[in-house]
Amino acid sequence: MSEFRWVEIPVTGSTWRADREAAWRVTELSKEAQVVVYGRLFRRDETDRLMEPEWQVYAEGRAAGTTGRRGPARWLREAGHWIAARSGLLDVHIRVHGSTDAALHLARHLRADGPRADLRVRPLDGRGRTGTVQHREDALNRALALFLSPLFVMALFVTLAQHARGATAAVCWFLALVCTVPAWWTALALPLAGTPLRCLAASAAATAAMAGYALGFGGQHPGEALTTAGIAFYAAGLILLARRWRWQVLIAGVLPLIATLLVAALPLTGRILHDAYADELGLTPQETAVSGVWQIAAAVKLLWPTLGAVLFIAAAWGILRYFHFIRPRGVFAATVAALALVLALSESAGWTLSSPARAADRLKQAADHRTSAPPYFGIAAEWICVRPTVRARALNEQGGTLSPSSAYLSFGVADGNVVLWNPSADQPLRVPAGQVRLLPAGRPGRTCTS
Fold first, then answer.
1. Other C-beta atoms within 10 Å of 147: how many?
2. Pick from 174, 270, 293, 156: nearest CA to 224
3. Cβ contacts of 175 within 8 Å, gap of 6 or more
């Protein structure tokens, strides 16, 4: 005796490579049920609704029905009525969706106070003109995504090409040109502006605007462009992830940010980079004390690589799963994602933990070259002149000998001492605050005169 059952397995995600996803689902079902399963792939037609034009209902008013001899007065009344209708002064706060005839019928017959023949409709979204092609909603959304995404990538390559040299610049310019092909092809295949000629003009205008922005009108820098691209990549991956699993969006998008802020608020985490910076310069924690805001900023800097790696893996997972490149519950994909996460964390953590040493080197270079010293999460050294108020023999210096004619980088006053940086000894110079008088040095490195 044989028994046949019909089991429907819906496949979510992109229609491209959907047959591969269906084959994975059928194989998984066959292993779980331990029965012979024969796969049949059925492709459904687009089920999304048609985007009907939106109309605003307005009262016709008396001016439109005015009869009599034509003259300047009637023309003025008709012009004033046309302006009032188009500017919304005659609106009745009702909007309807549908074709021209259907919208007018709905506006006149679906009111609680009964039919009204004095009501008219005007298009709100520009699609109420005769002969306008009405595309389906999902098809239009896909076309807009396929049109704007390549142009965005083109702007990124144009920005990178401006700051590249030689073969790298040529490759970036070539990739920027290649990115315009799918954008224009999508716009011509699904005319977004009504006619192919208008679509061609709109595509050229959009391409010129993106290229002009990337060429300098927006002041884009490669670092800023890559940051913008990273944010767009994460947003796209999270959106595609949300179309498959709602609960994983919370895990991938909200929980890492909350965890980062909570851990950053811990006192121990906030002092890691500051203590490392102080150790590089031979300072004490009291001499590098900053407000809690700067400690949280330093902690976020310390934890940001972890958050960035998690967000990148989540976005990449969402994009690859949407286009069926990753098998459901695949061990290989999970292993690769874990290894990529560990590698990203190790590299970014090493770069972050070495930032105090780089900041200390920049401060030492500023002291040697008599230039402004860059701050480090609230720790800012300023050029000052130090005037002793006691005799030289009574001056109690620690870390070198004070030269009143030279300007010093000062970290402020801590534990009763003025903390200075002594470039000749490559170490801090501490002088009792009650034995000296501090004056601004003006320009960085200016020689102090008595």
1. 21
2. 156
3. 157
